[in-house]
Specification:
The chain is an alpha+beta fold. It folds into 2 domains: 4-66 and 201-306, DD-peptidase/beta-lactamase superfamily (Beta-lactamase); 70-200, DD-peptidase/beta-lactamase superfamily (Beta-lactamase), CATH 3.40.710. It is 47% helix and 11% strand. Substrate binds at residues 69, 120, 164, 171, 195, 247, 265. One of its GO terms (molecular function) is glutaminase activity. InterPro entries: Beta-lactam/transpept-like, Glutaminase.
């Protein structure tokens, strides 16, 4: 049997990209955050970062986009490392949900903590926990952690941040409702500003691949070789990415791609092949469930060509 590292090369990614790009015509660029709608639906990039060899990538690799919900991986990992897994999950659950990513229905019906930290309500709860401890230093602490993972600091997109803030009625409702139920503590607007800024952090598909590779390598940065997160944090991230990383499309993604993943409405998807590599893909046209059409297709093809399906589940 051929070694996987021998099969992973630029030509393979070029071929996958050529096939996947075509499917972007089936989707639409997100418009509920107006600034996101300015991104061209034709953009595409695919990056693979093995844990023990150089990155391989294709497409518009230098194109920055905002992390959106993919930043929830970083804030959750940071929170678990700072406060411990048990403490974090007193404030948010670990259960998958068929609800949309910005739903408040479950909280309203049950008066319980958010289902998982990848739902908007859950991510806001995680931000609340971080903000309670670090106040105005919260953003710098999280971005310093991100820099240690990807080796660079790319800032945030202020236009997207302001656009998110202006169109955040649902997230604002979530936060104030959680506070009224005793599920959120502190200055709601300050917590939301932290959340919106994290969503607006700039990244490339290569940056996503490095985050995935850090998780794939058991928590060790492929940039510095430093152990950044504990094994328990790695297992928690992988479990949640597998069960709820693509919201109400997580089950189908598990069948079609078979890898832990995390998507964002900017069109990015981060995937992990434990022990082997991290993968980042970007294509802004989304399907009806808010996930990148070409991104899912590219990951499906890559998983098939390299026989990756099920390695991380």
């Amino acid at each position: 049997m051929e070694n996987q590292s021998d099969l992973l090369n630029k030509q393979l990614l070029n071929d996958i990209g050529n096939i996947a790009r075509v499917t972007s015509a089936e989707g639409k660029v997100a418009s509920y955050i107006p600034e996101l709608s300015r991104m061209s639906a034709e953009l595409f990039s695919l990056s693979c970062q093995p844990v023990d060899s150089p990155m391989v990538e294709t497409g518009d690799c230098g194109q920055f986009f905002t992390m959106q919900s993919m930043a929830k991986i970083i804030s959750l990992a940071f929170a678990i490392e700072q406060f411990g897994c048990e403490n974090v999950f007193r404030h948010v659950g670990m259960e998958a949900s068929a609800d949309s990513f910005n739903s408040l229905m479950r909280i309203e019906m049950t008066s319980s903590k958010p289902s998982n930290p990848f739902m908007n309500a859950g991510a806001i709860a995680v931000c609340s926990l971080i903000f309670k401890a670090y106040k105005e230093e919260s953003l710098k602490r999280i971005t310093d952690f991100l820099k240690s993972v990807i080796g660079e600091e790319n800032g945030f997109d202020e236009k997207v941040f302001l656009s998110e803030k202006r169109s955040a009625d649902r997230n604002r409702a979530l936060a104030f409702f959680m506070k009224s139920m005793g599920l959120l503590h502190g200055d709601v607007e300050a917590i939301l500003d932290l959340y919106f800024t994290l969503c607006s952090l700039r990244c490339t598909s290569g940056g996503l691949a490095k985050i995935g590779a850090m998780i794939a390598s058991g928590g060790t940065s492929v940039v510095s070789g430093e152990k950044l997160i504990a094994n328990e944090t790695v297992y928690t991230l992988l479990g949640l990415m597998s069960s709820c990383g693509l919201y109400n499309e997580s089950g189908e993604f598990a069948v079609r791609v078979g890898l832990p993943g995390k998507s964002g409405v900017s069109g990015g998807i981060l995937a992990v092949v434990p022990g082997r590599m991290g993968i980042g893909v970007f294509s802004p046209a989304l399907n009806a469930k808010g996930n990148s059409v070409a991104g899912i297709r590219a990951l499906e093809l890559l998983s098939e060509k390299l026989d990756l399906r099920g390695l991380g589940l």
